[in-house]
Design brief:
This protein is of the alpha+beta class. The protein folds into two domains: 89 residues; 232 residues, Bira Bifunctional Protein, Domain 2 (BirA Bifunctional Protein, domain 2, 2-Layer Sandwich), CATH 3.30.930.10. The protein is built from eleven helices and nine strands. The strands form two sheets. It has a seven-stranded mixed beta sheet, with helices on both faces. Strands 2-3 form a two-stranded antiparallel sheet. A hairpin with a 2-residue loop joins strand 6 and strand 7. Helix 1 runs parallel beside helix 4, helix 5 packs across helix 10 and helix 7 crosses helix 9. The two termini are 79 Å apart. The structure holds 3,4-dihydroxyphenylalanine. 3,4-dihydroxyphenylalanine binds next to strand 8 and strand 9.
Length: 342
């Protein structure tokens, strides 16, 4: 190897470097020339075979070559990196479809609430709301709840330091609405309720109800039964059977409890029930009745002029029945794997 050979290597190297189209190519050339097994290493190794009198000149030329190639690589690197940013920008395709990140969905409690509201909206009900923090008058007194009634007990109801309480049902919304509006009334009140219940598979200290109230001239038990039957068919399908049982609530007279035939084993008259309906064939869905005249008096309505029906149902209960959920607590844990199913 001699100085001429070095010049030849230099020309080739600089030519190649100046043509390198991008950063990858520059790096490949850096390895080819300056790398540990690169061409310039071979040149340095060849130095020992160069005749003594040429060694100095060859060494200088070799160093110069190395520096020039290094400088050329550096320069080329700058040049193409600017180009490649531009190239990336040019290559960006604005018409390409974006990445779908997925939509959230309504919580089962909201889904069922919305469904109930939709069904009653279709027959003229509108939504009315009331405060979660209630007073004793609206939650109990005006609803004709006697002073000794167990639901008033501090072991069942959360009383607050300010003398108020957390509403134990959505029924006080009836009272508030009638206080502020003249009949006729046709409202639905969804919302949170609170009771001092110990949590288990079917109880939660915080749950949701939907209350309904219809007050007008000559509203009858037949209206109540008809509207509930309509609701049952809308929410569970045309096959569903409805059963009314006598019951007691302080705010209605007469009072009834309403069962729907079990949607899991229903329709089959031979069936004796299943796990969902606890072998009975029926599922308890709501309390209802004709508004007690005492309630009308409490809000300033004349019970001689108007009658009405009311009903109240637990949303969690309906969600558990309809969506086949075995433990009420799953509804509050916000486990996305669970919620995604609905
Ligand atoms: N408020 C009752 C409860 O929490 C449910 C209820 C029953 C509401 C009968 C009503 C009704 O409006 O008429 O258990």
């Amino acid at each position: 190897m001699d100085v001429d050979k070095l010049k030849q290597i230099k020309d080739t190297a600089l030519g190649e470097v100046n043509e390198a189209p991008d950063l990858d190519a520059v790096e490949t050339l850096r390895i080819k020339y300056l790398g540990r097994k690169g061409l310039l290493q071979d040149v340095m190794k060849a130095l020992k075979d160069v005749p003594d009198e040429q060694k100095a000149g060859f060494g200088q030329a070799a160093n110069a070559l190395k520096q020039e190639v290094q400088a050329a690589l550096e320069e080329r690197k700058q040049a193409v990196s600017g180009d490649s940013e531009q190239a990336t920008a040019d290559a960006f395709d604005f018409t390409m479809p974006g990445q779908w990140r997925g939509l959230g969905s309504a919580h089962p409690i909201s889904q069922i609430t919305d469904r109930v509201v939709d069904i009653f909206s279709a027959i003229g009900f509108t939504v009315a709301e009331g405060p979660d923090m209630e007073d004793v008058f609206h939650n109990f007194d005006a609803l004709n709840t006697p002073p000794e009634h167990p639901s008033r007990d501090a072991r069942d109801t959360f009383y607050l330091d300010n003398g108020k309480l957390l509403r134990t049902h959505t029924s006080p919304v009836q009272i508030r609405y009638m206080e502020n509006n003249k009949p006729p009334v046709r409202i639905l009140s969804p919302g949170r309720c609170y009771r001092r219940d110990t949590e288990d598979r079917t109880h939660s200290a915080n749950f949701h109800q939907v209350e309904g109230l219809y007050v007008s001239e000559r509203v009858s038990l037949a209206d109540l039964k008809g509207d509930i039957a309509y609701f049952a068919r809308e929410i569970l399908g045309p096959e569903v059977q409805v059963r009314f049982r006598p019951h007691f609530f302080p705010f209605t007279e007469p009072s009834i409890e309403v069962d729907f035939s079990c949607h899991v084993c229903a329709g089959q008259t031979s069936s004796k029930g299943c796990a969902t309906c606890r072998e009975s064939g029926w599922i308890e869905i709501m309390g209802a009745g004709m508004v007690d005249p005492e309630v009308f008096k409490a809000v300033g309505y004349n019970p001689e002029e108007v009658t009405g029906y009311a009903f109240g149902m637990g949303i969690e209960r309906i969600a558990m029945v309809m969506l086949d959920i075995d433990d009420i607590r799953r509804l509050y844990q916000n486990d996305v794997r669970f919620l995604k199913q609905f």
